[in-house]
Write a structure and sequence with these properties.
This protein has eight helices and five strands; from the N terminus they run αβααααβββαβαα. The chain is an alpha+beta fold. The protein has a five-stranded mixed beta sheet, with helices on one face. Helix 4 packs across helix 8 and helix 5 runs parallel beside helix 7.
């Protein structure tokens, strides 16, 4: 039986919301945003010496240890690219990732007329989770910080560098090869992050 899947992750929820009401208009591409994690300003040389505690200090989001480490390496964004491929039935050539330091624009959809629709809000995972549970209704979000534009007078976007974030490039390659390679990559990542958190690598 076919049942709808309502995305929970902030990026996929954003894309889902940007597609809502568009009557299956043809998509040029979807654009996932990435904060760049805690080491986005470090040189490649300095990256060799980062500590676990530094890696666990995400600049925008409050998340568990595993996903925070994956965010620092951009592995999480690689998984999100693969997930977006399956959730929205798009080839990898139509899935882009850009750096967006403020984590205000959670993701975007560009249509064939080049109009881009973006979903914006505070960096609070309770919002996409609640929307998934209440869809199609939007409920009052208690104890949540409302979004204020004047808190973000400037928003910044930068091109993604596969050289700086090689795990993101790997995820694209793995996704295109299909099969069970995504599960293999996920397993390898689980082991590597666990070892890093234990201070063994």
């Amino acid at each position: 039986k076919r049942v709808p899947i309502i995305p929970v992750d902030s990026e996929h929820s954003a894309i889902f919301q940007c597609l809502s009401g568009e009557n299956n208009n043809p998509i040029e591409k979807i654009i996932l945003t990435a904060s760049g994690g805690p080491f986005r300003n470090l040189s490649a040389e300095k990256l060799k010496y980062v500590t676990k505690n530094e890696a666990l200090k995400h600049p925008n989001w409050k998340m568990g240890a595993k996903i925070t480490i994956d965010s620092a390496s951009m592995m999480n964004k690689g998984f999100e690219v693969i997930e977006a491929h399956y959730l929205f039935d798009l080839p990898y050539e139509q899935i882009d990732v850009i750096l967006h330091r403020e984590s205000v624009v959670h993701s975007m959809v560009e249509y064939q007329d080049h109009a881009i629709i973006a979903q914006m809000g505070t960096a609070d995972m309770r919002l996409p989770i609640q929307y998934a549970l209440s869809y199609p209704d939007r409920l009052v979000m208690h104890n949540a910080e409302p979004f204020h534009f004047m808190n973000y007078p400037s928003l910044h976007f930068e091109a993604m560098s596969f050289e700086r974030y090689p795990l993101l490039k790997l995820a694209y390659e793995v996704g295109k090869k299909q099969g069970n390679l995504g599960a293999v990559m996920n397993g390898a990542d689980e082991c590597a992050v666990a070892l890093f958190l234990k201070g063994k690598i």
